[in-house]
Design brief:
It is a single chain. This protein is an alpha+beta fold. The chain has three domains: about 5-155, Pleckstrin-homology domain (PH domain)/Phosphotyrosine-binding domain (PTB) (PH-domain like), CATH 2.30.29.30; about 170-315, Rossmann fold, CATH 3.40.50; about 320-570, Tumour Suppressor Smad4 (Sandwich), CATH 2.60.200. It contains 14 helices and 30 strands. Strands 12, 17, 18, 19, 20, 21, 22, 23, 26, 27, 28, 29 and 30 form a 13-stranded antiparallel β-sheet that branches. Helix 4 (about 190-205) runs parallel beside helix 9 (about 290-305), helix 8 packs across helix 9 (about 290-305) and helix 10 (about 330-340) packs across helix 11 (about 350-360). It is elongated and about 80 Å long. Mean pLDDT is about 80; it is low at about 1-25, about 160-165 and about 380-440. It binds adenosine-5'-triphosphate (ATP). Adenosine-5'-triphosphate binds near residues 183 and 218. InterPro entries: ATP-NAD_kinase_N, Diacylglycerol_kinase_cat_dom, Lipid_Phosphate_FormReg, NAD/diacylglycerol_kinase_sf, YegS/DAGK_C. This is sphingosine kinase. Its EC number is 2.7.1.91.
């Protein structure tokens, strides 16, 4: 209701008012009002419209209710502040030693409707109350601290769902390493930190050490060498590329098994900000962009709930295995991402510009694509939301129907990269005959890949091979968003053990492709019924480009061009999501 008016309350004005008036508090008591347990009640002085006023404050298990002001007339009479929107609260003495009063400041970030839009964004509101019942300053402070402690406890953390989702919380106090890339996006990450994030973390009582990255791979080096016993979380403020460095730094440590359990977080400072937009989406927020997205992610970071996050191991021919948390792209999407670097000054609009340029000179990419379809056990701990395979054109290949839900496919001889022939083995038998991808996993740190064979060997027989060999794009996603306004896989969750594989076959018109990208903004890619778009859920994939030149990206970073394969590792890392996906 009238949070805006109450937010005008400043410490100085409250302090002034306190000197001139009295205030009453009542001891802690519990009663029930409107289904909520009332824990504390008090009458405090506060200031509105530059006038000292008295208000009644009630703390229930869910809300802080401010009634008043008195004396009337003032327009606002009751403000209900949901404790879920509170990131922190503190009690303190004023700077004037002659002033016996103590103060309570509580920091809320409630959702407010965006101007000229149906969307909602979080906006900061501070409430400050003065305690001066007693002449003894320490007694006043004690009372204020009691209020602050209970508000913090009640507003602390969202409750994890009771459906078996594995979540936990950052410890308090939390020792956070915060890596900021001053060059990311439009080069504003540091000023955005100063404008919003520093204050939010301080309000939430999150201790953090700010490290400004100085060059490419700086974050990777820091993380690889860090004494992890000194840190409770590692957070980056940049685009997705800096988190990619952090994840890969953790997974190349000799103690990778322990290292990868450290919660990682992201604050949007780049131009794409796909993971940040995904985290906001998982929290149930309506779409927001730019600084609104930053504040939402800052709010969720302060809430500190941690969820498992899938990582995908990626193999190319001659460089070491990588770990990816976002996407693997070839063709149109990868080209736009990299070629639009020159429009970086335009921020997120760079992708729109890049898309239009690339549309004007549409390319076809030749290659072979194969994958291991998802089966029931992909989501064994979670209800499958949709059919694992949804083909907009109702076909994976010209000869075979898509695999049915929960069915292990058994497709002989068509799985034949390198012209090898496979017998009609069952899933189980085949695995026995073809051990995991030992070459890539025995020497390097990180978990073994149980679904992959070395890139120079034929595919396992239970993989599907896409019959088409000409593509406009291939895109594997494991988060919901590809960019702030690109909702590629709206049903994706952070730890479902699934790769969402999309490909667009050659032959699509420019206008149809543009329609796909416009639909993506609304998360309606699959509603386009585009005959050239194919979507399926997979656990592993292999791509072998035949076009001599091209770009392959992993989490938006260019990797070696050539054969590439990937396998999802469910819940391998831990991500600060602030909510349950
Ligand atoms: N001080 C620095 N100067 C130059 N490059 C840096 C610096 N710090 C980090 N980097 C590198 O910048 C690269 C860009 O990272 P990131 O993706 O996070 O930002 P971005 O490219 O601006 O974001 P987006 O991809 O969303 O546009 C990373 O590879 C990182 O190694």
């Amino acid at each position: 209701m009238n949070e805006r008016k109450s937010s005008r309350l400043s410490l100085d004005s409250v302090r002034l008012a306190l000197r001139m008036n009295e205030r009453k508090t009542q001891p802690e008591r519990c009663s029930t009002r409107g289904g909520c347990t009332v824990t504390l009640y008090g009458e405090f002085l506060t200031v509105t419209r530059n006038r000292k006023v008295r208000c009644e404050v009630t703390l229930t298990d869910k809300d802080l209710v401010v009634k008043g002001p008195y004396p009337t007339p003032f327009r606002w009479s009751k403000v209900v502040l949901n404790l879920k929107d509170c990131i922190g609260c503190r009690a303190y003495r004023g700077g004037d030693t002659a002033d016996p009063a103590a103060y309570l400041s509580a920091y809320f970030y409630p959702l407010k409707r965006l101007w000229m839009s149906s969307g909602m964004s979080r906006q900061r509101v501070e409430h400050c109350f003065g305690f001066n019942t007693l002449q003894d300053p320490s007694a006043n402070l004690e009372e204020a601290e009691k209020w602050a402690r209970i508000i913090r406890e009640r507003s602390g953390r969202p409750q994890p769902h009771g459906d078996g989702v594995r979540t936990n919380e950052l410890p308090r106090p939390c020792r956070m390493m915060l890596l900021v890339n001053p060059q990311s996006g439009k080069g504003q990450a540091l000023s955005l930190y100063n404008r919003h994030i520093q204050q939010m973390l301080n309000e939430a009582g999150v201790q953090h050490t700010l490290i400004i990255t100085e060059h490419q791979n700086h974050a990777r080096e820091l993380v690889r060498e860090a004494d992890l016993s000194q840190w409770d979380a590692m957070v980056i403020m940049s685009g997705d590329g800096l988190l990619y460095e952090v994840i890969n730094g953790l997974l190349t440590r000799p103690d990778w098994e322990e290292a990868v359990r450290i919660p990682v977080g992201i604050l949007p400072g780049g131009s794409g900000n796909a993971l940040a937009a995904s985290i906001h989406h998982y929290s149930g927020g309506s779409p927001v962009f730019g600084e609104d997205l930053l504040i939402s992610c800052g709010f969720l970071l302060c809430k500190g709930l941690v969820s498992p996050m899938d990582l995908v191991s990626i193999h190319v021919s001659s460089t070491p295995r990588m770990f990816s948390f976002l996407s693997l792209a070839w063709g149109f999407v990868a080209d736009v991402d990299i070629e639009s670097e020159k429009y970086r000054h335009a921020g997120a609009a760079r992708f729109t510009m890049g898309t239009l340029v690339r549309l004007a000179s549409l390319r076809i990419y030749k290659g072979k694509l194969a994958y291991l379809p998802c089966t029931k056990d992909c989501n064994s701990e979670r209800k499958v939301k949709n059919d694992p395979t949804l083909h907009c054109n109702n076909q994976t290949s010209s000869t075979t129907p898509p695999p049915a839900l929960n069915q292990v496919t058994d497709t002989p001889s068509k799985n034949s990269f390198h012209n090898s022939c496979h017998s009609n083995n069952s899933h189980q038998v085949h695995r026995t005959e073809n051990p995991p991808h030992a070459n890539a996993t025995t020497a390097a740190p990180g978990p073994p890949d149980s679904l992959l064979l070395p890139l120079d060997q034929p595919l396992p027989s239970d993989w599907e091979v896409v019959q088409e060999e000409q593509f406009v794009l291939v895109l594997a996603m494991y988060q919901s968003h590809l960019g702030e306004d690109m909702v590629t896989a709206p049903d994706a969750t952070v730890d479902e053990g699934v790769i969402h594989l999309y490909y667009v076959r050659a032959g699509i018109s420019r206008s149809a492709l543009l329609r796909l990208f416009l639909a993506m903004e609304k998360g309606a890619l699959l509603s386009t019924n585009c005959q050239h778009l194919v979507y399926t859920k997979v656990r592993a994939l292999r791509l072998e480009p035949h076009s001599p030149k091209g770009i392959i990206t992993v989490d938006g970073e260019v990797v070696e061009y050539g054969p590439v394969q990937a396998e999802v590792h469910r819940g391998l890392a831990r991500l600060i999501t602030g909510c349950v996906g």
